[in-house]
Design goal:
Number of helices: 10
Number of strands: 9
Helix content: 40-55%
Strand order of the largest sheet: 1-2-3-5-4
Distance between the termini: 49 Å
Shape: globular
Structural class: alpha+beta
Number of domains: 2
CATH superfamily of the largest domain: Aminoglycoside phosphotransferase (APH), C-terminal lobe
Order of helices and strands: HEEEHEEHHHHEEEEHHHH
CATH topology of the largest domain: Aminoglycoside 3'-phosphotransferase, Chain: A, domain 2
Strand content: 5-15%
CATH architecture of the largest domain: Alpha-Beta Complex
CATH class of the largest domain: Alpha Beta
Length: 339
């Protein structure tokens, strides 16, 4: 089967040269596609399964070395107790298949993307998955950055200040109309910024939809392209914003909306108990996460509104515009209200 972005002959040769136990030919099948990084399942004649990960088609080459960085991060994190796929090598030679790529283990299990997949878990399994997800996050944040070789990945200090600077520039560069809530949120985020206590690996997109689940446990944490170093509570704030409870907006189409998983309060209590961290300012981090997502969505909105993406997919521009406002409003509520 031909997979866009995969030159099967050249990639097979790379496998043969870099994985001595491989038995050709290899069967390739797509796992993900679109604008995200592409993942391809690779199965050799022994039945051994691997995953090849590369940038999306049309990806600018100047950004293609993200795969090299991501391979470094996954390999390093794998030295600790956080479950990640084992890595087997990275290829920076773009003549092989048009972009850098790396290869890792294929991990059995399911990624909970649709509610019907969550419904297949028993109530006990949903509780166990909730608990283990928090334990894994705590383990990530307890990982010795220098011991695993990531001490120079990024600056460790002033994480929120750096992020505010970056995403404020993004917002100002892509603003197409006034949203007072965005500007007021920026003011509050600067005014109420907590002191950063310690520094850790920050996943950047830590949510249940980026996990492989099996046997009531997280078997692997995926999608490390946004990983950096900084304030661990940014990960928790982001996780809480993705943690929809039954009866809340969009819960009928969310993987957690089926019920049986921990509540946000239970997630916070468990994280605080394991890490000993003070979560009195966690709403700030939730507000920051909502505001940052609004800035990201505004960038997407502007690109589509200007028809600058070159993408044939259609987007409901009014819906995206409303999403930006909704996230900005949510940020304000989190910065000024309750959990």
């Amino acid at each position: 089967m031909d997979i866009p972005g995969i030159d099967s002959d050249k990639v097979s040769t790379w496998f043969a040269n870099n994985l001595p136990d491989i038995e050709l030919p290899i069967e390739f099948s797509a796992l993900t596609g679109g604008r995200s990084n592409l993942s391809c399942k690779c199965v050799d004649q022994r039945g051994a399964a691997y995953v090849l990960r590369r940038p999306p088609l049309g990806h600018a080459l100047e950004s293609a070395h993200d795969m090299v960085r991501e391979h470094r991060i996954v390999s390093a994190v794998g030295k600790g107790t956080v479950p990640v796929p084992k890595t087997y090598g990275v290829c920076e030679d773009v003549s092989i298949t048009g972009a850098p790529f790396y290869v890792m283990d294929y991990v059995d299990g399911v990624v909970l993307i649709e509610p019907d997949e969550s419904e297949k878990l028993s109530l006990e399994e949903r509780v166990n998955v909730s608990q283990h997800l928090v334990e894994v996050l705590a383990a990530l944040h307890a990982t010795d950055i220098d011991a695993i070789g990531l001490g120079d990945l990024a600056r460790k200090e002033a994480y929120i200040a750096r992020q505010l600077k970056r995403w404020t520039r993004q917002w100002e560069a892509t603003k197409t109309h006034e949203i007072p809530e965005m500007d007021e949120a920026i003011r509050l985020l600067h005014e109420r910024m907590p002191e950063q206590i310690g520094a850790s690996v920050v996943h950047g997109d830590y949510r249940l939809g980026n996990m492989i689940v099996a046997d009531s446990r997280i078997q692997a944490v995926l999608d490390w392209e946004l990983c950096t170093l900084g304030d661990p509570l940014a990960d928790l704030g982001y996780l809480l914003n993705t943690w929809v409870e039954p009866g809340e907006p969009l819960s009928d189409i969310h993987i957690l909306g089926v019920g049986g998983f921990w509540t946000r309060d239970q997630v916070c209590d468990a994280y605080a108990q394991v890490t000993g961290k003070d979560l009195s300012h966690i709403n700030y981090y939730r507000g920051f996460s909502s505001w940052r997502m609004a800035a990201i969505d505004q960038g997407v909105y502007k690109r589509y509104a200007e028809e600058a993406t070159g993408d044939v997919e259609e987007m409901d521009l009014e819906e995206k515009k409303e999403t930006v406002l909704r996230r900005a409003t949510t940020a304000m509520e989190q910065l000024t209200g309750g959990r």
